[in-house]
Amino acid sequence: MQIRLATMADADAIAEIYNREVTEGTATFDMLPRTTAEQAAWMRDHSGAYPCIVAVPDTTDDTTTGDTVLGWACLSPYRTRPAYSTSVEDSIYVHRDHQGRGVGGLLLGNLVALADEHGFHAIFARIADAGAASVTLHAKHDFELIGVEREVGRKFGRWLDVTLMQRLRPA
User: Fold this and answer.
1) CB contact at 8 A, 159 and 130
2) How far apart are CA 15 and CA 33, in angstroms?
3) Per the confidence metrics, is the pTM higher than 0.90?
4) What is the mean pLDDT of residues 44-71?
5) Kind and range of the H or E element at 113?
């Protein structure tokens, strides 16, 4: 697997992975799939200090092509007020056909390195619906449990909690 910065050519694959979670899962509280125009705008917002990265197969893998997006991850501003500018929130989505194969760990490791390179002090992870795999993944990358927001979202007719984890940049 290789990790690289996402390009506009990856927009459809990123949207496909994300929109499936919108319509079938609880990893996002979005309720409507992103349109092509919305995805393009989102891609423009995720560059520079707030990058989006993708995991793609090694070109030596005969089962997929080198431009197949196995998963993606990004950094986003944590809050809009200026005092929060040294904090970011992460997002990680792995195509369901490629989960459990180390894609998420590789993406998160690279995302943490990018956050450190950009000088961010804190990275927050907001994990919906007690996603055990995501909690374990973040813990392996030095994120600590901060708390649980109880019943802050409602999707598919049920209340959902959000687990909040945080990683501080090493001194």
Assistant:
1) no
2) 8
3) yes
4) 82
5) helix 103-117
